[in-house]
Amino acid sequence: MNRILILFLGAVLTLGAQCPIDARVTKTAMRNGNNNMYGAVIGWAASGYWWEWQVEVTGSLNFTPTGGSPSSIASGQKFGWLAGLGSASGIGWTTGQALEPRGNGSYYTQGSGIFVAPYCGAGGSIPAANSPTQIIKRPERPDYQAVPYHDAIMYLGRDASNNLISQTQQYKNFATIVPGAPNGASGVPDWSLLQSGSKGQYATISATTGTTTKLTASNYSDDCLVYNVTLKASYDGFYSEPMYIFINRPHKMIYRYWEDEHDPIGSGYLSSLYYEVETRCNWVVMSGYGVNGTPDGTAVNFSNWPPIENISNVASERLPVALLSPGPSSCGPNNDETCNPLPSNPQTPLGNVETQQRWEMWRVGSIMPGTGLPVQRNLSRKYQDHAAHSNFTTPIVLD
């Protein structure tokens, strides 16, 4: 904002004509780089006897947070003789202030000037006025390049070599992250990963600088929709809005006992037991994942039937567990003896002649036996005319 100097009344008639000047004060608030706000108040002459004039400017850089009230964040004065015409030869007070401590809001500079020509006996002032407002917004929060299935990356446990399982059908323990809109920032961002919670480390990132970074879950969040991980992009130290990250996991199995099916197969049976697997947020049922059930404890045989089979499967929302009776002549240690008792078709009501049982653990995250995250332990039982599960413990992981 520019204003022409008004000379003191006593000088207008006597000396104003001897050293006239078109005096001005320029106020500036301008973003200068990714993380700096430049403020300036410059007193200068557009025309006239500049060499006769001294100038004192007073300035302040002010900040108004979004939804708040303005306050001064820097202020000062500068005094001197003009060195020529134009603002480059004027007397200026300047400041540079980092954007990061304040974040979203608006900046403006307020300034005034006093002009004195001591040898002419002239002088005057330009009252305080404000620069145009400069609005600053943090860069938008980072986001997934492709939204993960069910809106969250999934911790899937570890494989037999203790390596993190990266994917099972629909679910991944990683995601590529891209920066949000820069809102005036420029260049390649740095990435800042913040973690807090009882487990210490929850995730890692593949790059601390770059146009993208890959975030990999190394553990699961403390509870449903608990955001133990925060990721920000920054431009020369000016940080984006935070991306809050929840790391989900397989949690427990729900036995849909009312859907059990027991069908005759030859002289024996096929029992199909149905489950669903819920994530840490219990209302979300998994769909499209690897699962496996393996021995976990004592197995007991009341017959010469072969051991209960391990099961690996890729499940949709309904997880079928299929348990098949042996062929009538496929029992004994070499699977070549007559079964005792002989398997039979399912009876009505179902019989109670138990042939064998074993404790087993169910894991979700892989079809490889014994790998993935444990979700249920139960007793698997085979009878002469059907199979069943009982003695359930689910979930297994409680934290």
Top keywords for this entry?
five-stranded antiparallel beta sheet; 28 strands; six-stranded antiparallel beta sheet; 399 residues; rod-shaped; 1 helix; single chain; mainly beta; disordered N terminus
How far apart are the first and last residues' alpha carbons, in Å? 62 Å
Cα-atom radius of gyration: 38 Å
Q: Tally the beta strands.
A: 28
Q: What structural class do you assign from the helix and strand content?
A: mainly beta
Assembly status: single chain
β-sheet strand percentage: over 45%
Order of helices and strands: EHEEEEEEEEEEEEEEEEEEEEEEEEEEE
Averaging pLDDT over every residue, what do you get? 94
Shape: rod-shaped
